[in-house]
């Protein structure tokens, strides 16, 4: 059955985009089949609210496997005709994760002899990255290229055989395209004249496959990056639909001329989406209103969750997957692999058919995120060898609004936790149009990496599916690991594909115990340990933050403040080589902290929301928060809580050490690069003073990259308050009291400041810190977080207004704080900017940890300075009011300190 026939056969009487079109004024304009091919849905995305939902992709809408596979295969045949036999033999196909992995594989099959690779969002230890790129409008932007053969994308080096004209573009969407005088398949241009000395490193054609070609940014950025590394003569872009706007049509020719290569476009259908002004804001508002209405209905009992009923067994199906055949194209899939898979498909389909109940007439083969090709081919084989009505779709990372209306493309949504230990941390995953679709059985197909306890948990995917079908089967495809990435100590699983008996069955009720599943794929031993987490290290919950530190709790590191100050200023020791004795606040000071927290909680919540929304808008919807320990850690936790409160996303969050004069922990950067895309990392701190840490981080990242470390880390810091004008991502530039600055470890998860000393921290170690378990009785870390988070709801409107203003404002750093500090240093005869600590937060640190000389306070400053005045009084430090001060206060450390020194008022500064 052809794809075009099937679309007409299954077309709805009501167009599945009408609900969105009517409410937002969105128009879908194109050839006659376009509305049968595409529907519309909405998603919560700061860059593009609407989603084109394909009826033949096999991602969001269950479809006949033969239709899904046939659509890609037919496109591959068209590319083969375009390139000719010789060109097809030299082609390499690259598909995009996650939606186009199966489509790209089918295109490669249509070409016949092309090796295939798809991008991935799953880093694999031991496999070198051949590149990566960003998908700007996606919910999960970072793509990795991890070919087993590093030369796969390099192509056939050796000259310009049958070369096409440089800068030539050829659009083969349909034969009737206006302005295109060549027939599809034309490979003219071999005799084009080039500039003298111009050569190409490869005439192997790279075929790039995505489900849609709209702005073209993702594909063109990929080509540009790969072309810089391995220039070639020709590229072919393949998509189910060409949805470029009229303004974007000329970009392809300009791009081809820019890189000096021919770029063709092959698309099944063409059209465009017309968007009215303000559609993004209106769409986001519509999503919010619909979510609120659905939640109200659920609470009122109008749409109760399906009852799970009696436990349903989830039986495993032993597929008998052929040894050595990859589960997909993550590391490359060659014609030789295809030749071994094809004859094995009928027998695997028969095993699935034998495991189905006798009454199963309508069956869904459900793939898993990037794992699309293997379940698609299994479904097509089952469809071919039985009279069962088979449909195919896959789970996805993409959060989309579901509306049970025939004019909306996503009718139902199942939500379940990720079950493959994703590198970007835990989060929700989705299966669309499965619930209520009337399937008699669902066959979930996952790779062995994803066969985890989370998959079988009471809230996991299998339990969610069991509520909507009479039978759930699980088929596990072994996760392919390139030989060089497999640890030598690894031993093969003794049982089935996941190391458990193949006949095992698990029960899915909420009370069922979670069995132990060991994936076949075994990870390479890590050089660096996993992050420390509470309650073993810190009083924070384990999901709030992972500390990329080593535990030095049993090491004596504390020294009297005066001894430390004398050693630091004399050059005998660095401040990070020891710890000050933890300040034990008096009852009066504790009461002051609580009062300050009550007074400023809403203000802090507003700043948290503002900086978080700014990060989400500018750095993508799933950034990885990396706090600079320890002042940044409470802020990072609050930002994570805001993202969950406002958007329902769980952002990964870690804390790392940075030391003035010594840089950031390079081993922590290596760990982050191994587990996340470096471009997703957002460094977080509490506040800026004069900007020393901002400069330190930028220098440290540059040094890390120059020494061969992973590139792509953005050294910009996101802070709650930026009174120094040192960063462009902040919650506010006002210098106000952030209550977490009032205390030390007891408001920071009971963790000390970080330690870097050569006898304790080796070249392969994380920096160190201590966990003060003995201070648990004084710990207010959770109270601080909860008090601020409780105010999120009331500041939401103010946050929206702040963010709207900030995103259009000039936020370039002014470095006013640094200039002020230099002036103060000279005016007061200190001549060392490191002894001038501007801002409420830094002044508090001076009084808690250093030997203060005097405090400069802005005349008229009120409640923000009450705790400063109390601390100064307790330590005998004068507070001098200053009229013209760019900060609320500035703390001055005693210059040239010795323990015989006295303060400005003649009183001894050494504690008695």
From TrEMBL:
Compositionally biased region (Basic and acidic residues): 168-185
Region (Disordered): 156-195, 291-314, 511-535
Limits of the Cysteine protease StiP N-terminal domain: 538-788
One Gene Ontology term of the molecular function aspect: transferase activity
Domain PELOTA RNA-binding, residue spans: 815-894
KW Plastid (keyword) present: no
Domain TRSP: 327-464
Taxonomy, superkingdom: Bacteria
Keyword Transferase: yes
Cleavable signal peptide: none
UniProt xrefs under InterPro entries: PELOTA_dom (IPR028157), PRTase-like (IPR029057), PRTase_2 (IPR041688), PRTase_dom (IPR000836), StiP_N (IPR011215), TRSP_dom (IPR022537)
Domain Orotate phosphoribosyltransferase-like: 37-154, 199-271
Keyword annotations of the record: Transferase
Protein name (record): Phosphoribosyl transferase-like protein
